[in-house]
Design goal:
Elements lengths: L1 E4 L2 E4 L10 H5 L2 E9 L2 E2 L2 H14 L8 H14 L5 E8 L17 E8 L4 H6 L1 E7 L14 H12 L4 E6 L2 E5 L3 E6 L2 E4 L10 H12 L4 E3 L4 H5 L3 E6 L3 E8 L2 E2 L7 H23 L1
Parallel strand pairs: 7-8, 7-14, 11-12
Antiparallel strand pairs: 1-2, 3-4, 3-5, 5-6, 8-9, 10-11, 10-13, 13-14, 14-15
Bound molecules: ligand DCS.
């Protein structure tokens, strides 16, 4: 696999990162993951907008323009012949002696790009998955797609150890999001999810799925919901770049409703699938 690091493309096995890069001493940087379907980016502009916003929010000056970044992302897909997979890109505040303040004088931010071939999680989406709940121990700027993922990593590990697909995080009684996905519930035909504020990452898939709800006449309420509301919901599902629309059929070992994938999740999966078709076809025609 070819990766982009230190301003050039190189083979993954010979890629090196400076020992004083702030990404690995402080987690001082941001990232994005874009899904690739049939060699074409899905929701590309949404991810690029969020990447630029994350950089702005933590005061990192991106080392490339949006056009240059786009060229590099396309090159990554081409070089590695990614068909169905993801492209990962991150920017750190750069290389400097380890001191907490931003480097002064400013140093050039480091950009890194990798790709991965990954099939769609069709089987899990068909059957539904299990989830556990855990306390959300993260910081108060979860809206920034920061490299600091320790809280997310800890939550995900808890899920793995419990044999579950994903963790549903909560602050006191309020459900926030998954460890690498957003979470939604359905009650009496209405879809509920946490408002897009500082406590969650405003997922690109989350936004797309909420738009698909509206297009399909499904009512949406963005409001805080409690754990007990989730436990007594008709349906629960995760959304995300890698998980798409992933139905949850059990929480902490107890079935959600009757323990099968519900009609709203099915309808949204279908709408999402059609959206992938439309978006990727449009791009191919350009
Ligand atoms: N919430 C968190 C904490 C996430 O890490 C992600 C995506 C989401 C929500 C969903 O956002 P998107 O719909 O924009 O993907 N996490 C990425 C990650 O770290 N790996 O894959 C996707």
């Amino acid at each position: 696999m070819d990766v982009y690091v230190n301003g050039q493309w190189t083979d993954r096995d010979s890629a090196t990162v400076d020992i004083e890069d702030r990404a690995h001493v402080f987690g001082d940087g941001i990232y994005e993951v874009i899904r690739v379907y049939g060699g074409v980016f899905y929701e590309r502009d949404g991810h690029l907008d969020r990447f630029e916003r994350s950089a702005r929010e933590i005061g990192i000056k991106l080392p490339v323009t949006r056009e240059e970044l786009l060229q590099l992302l396309h090159e990554g897909i081409r070089r590695n012949a990614v068909h169905d997979g993801t492209i990962y890109f991150q920017v750190s505040r750069g290389v400097a002696a380890r001191k907490h303040p931003f480097p002064d004088p400013e140093v050039k931010a480091s950009l890194m790009i990798t790709t991965k071939e990954a099939p769609r999680p069709v089987e899990a989406m068909e059957k539904g998955v299990s989830a556990i709940t855990c306390e959300d121990i993260r910081w108060l700027r979860c809206d920034i797609k920061s490299l600091n993922l320790l809280g997310n990593v800890m939550a995900n590990q808890k899920a793995v150890e419990a044999g579950a697909f994903e963790a549903i995080q909560h602050r006191a009684e309020v459900v926030t999001e998954g460890s690498h996905s957003n979470v939604m519930m359905v009650k009496d035909g209405t879809v509920y999810t946490h408002p897009a504020n500082n406590l969650i990452l405003n997922g690109i898939t989350r936004m797309r799925v909420l738009a698909l709800c509206k297009e399909n006449g499904i009512e949406v309420q963005e409001r805080e919901c409690t754990l007990s509301e989730y436990e007594s919901a008709d349906e629960v599902f995760f959304t995300g770049t890698t998980v798409e629309v992933m139905p949850v059929i059990s929480i902490n070992g107890t079935s959600v409703s009757n323990g099968t994938v519900g009609p709203v999740a099915r309808q949204l999966q279908k709408a999402f699938e059609e959206d992938i078709e439309v978006q990727t076809k449009e791009v191919k025609l350009l």
